[in-house]
Automatic annotation (TrEMBL):
This is ABC transporter ATP-binding protein. Residues 16-248 form the ABC transporter domain. Keywords: ATP-binding, Nucleotide-binding, Transport. SMART domains: AAA. The keyword RNA-binding does not apply. GO terms for molecular function: ATP binding. It holds the Pfam family ABC_tran. CDD domains: ABC_Mj1267_LivG_branched (cd03219). The keyword Transport applies. It comes from Pseudonocardia yunnanensis.
Length: 258
């Protein structure tokens, strides 16, 4: 991989605002009074140890988990507490840590099915699937059966399904897990391309190099709490982040000025 350039953060109006988000599962506080915002066109990375509350935060933003308290606003619309289909129609799309595709169906069918949740007719959904295929340069994959594809291509299909919804905000949950270095670079390229087109994106990722290469800004969660946020290199040098997550070796690798 190349030495990460430091992307310049957009300073647009916030698209997503999360205020004092708390999610409890019985006695467990998975997310504890977390507040952050994401600017229009920003690429935000979320890191933290296993069980820190990253996916639960995503689930709350996407409507898959009901917040115990707190407010999530997309643009002018409060989305916290709405069901996932409503949230998706309002413009928040997500991928999953483990791919969730219809393996016996073709790529085209998978993407068209996703598009059909926002399109008025099957014809319009199929047209949207073709647009997304072109955007992601995956026209040659469209007739392939999903289950027969390598994992990297399945991840591309996951992104395609999310994009089929014409999202304003895209949530990518550990897209790189299980991929080799070449495949990781390939998916980084896809995410970069989407970011360059102005799409607002939040990425959860354990591969720090990916976070460094993609993110304008990084949030760090630990035990459900937001312990740091800021420019990637600053965050990687933060003593609390080093102690809770990175360890000194990674801090040296990623916290050095480029
Ligand atoms: N549906 C659930 N019911 C009960 N506990 C849950 C549920 N979902 C998550 N948790 C717990 O909430 C905490 C936060 O989990 P979460 O999956 O959000 O962490 P994470 O930061 O995404 O971790 P990882 O990096 O391992 O994916 C963990 O203790 C987890 O066991």
């Amino acid at each position: 991989m190349t030495t990460p350039a430091v992307p310049v953060a957009p300073t647009g109006a916030p698209l997503l605002q999360v205020d004092e988000l708390t999610v409890r599962f019985g006695g467990l506080v998975a997310v504890n009074a977390v507040s952050f915002s994401v600017a229009e066109g920003e690429l935000l990375g979320i890191i933290g140890p296993n069980g820190a509350g990253k996916t639960t935060s995503f689930n709350a933003v996407a409507g898959a988990v009901r917040p115990t308290s707190g407010t999530i606003t997309l643009g002018e619309t409060v989305v916290s507490g709405l069901p996932p289909e409503r949230v998706a129609r309002l413009g928040i799309a997500r991928t999953f840590q483990a791919v969730r595709l219809f393996r016996a169906m073709s790529v085209a069918e998978n993407v068209t099915l996703a598009a059909s949740t926002v399109c008025r007719s099957l014809t319009a959904a199929a047209r949207r699937a073709d647009e997304v295929a072109e955007l992601l340069s995956m026209g040659s994959l469209m007739n392939a059966e999903v289950g027969a594809l390598p994992l990297a291509d399945q991840k591309r299909v996951e992104i395609a399904r999310a994009l089929a919804l014409r999202p304003r905000l895209l949530l990518l949950d550990e897209m790189m897990s299980g991929l080799n270095q070449e495949e990781t670079l390939d998916i980084i390229g896809v995410v970069r391309q989407l970011g360059a087109q102005g799409l607002t994106i939040i990425v959860i990722e354990h591969v720090l190099k990916v976070i460094m290469e993609l993110s304008h800004r990084v949030l760090v969660l630990d035990h459900g709490a937001l312990i740091a946020q800021g420019a990637p290199r600053e965050v990687m040098r933060d003593p609390q982040v080093v102690a809770a997550y990175l360890g000194p070796q990674a801090a040296r690798t990623f916290g050095e000025p480029s």
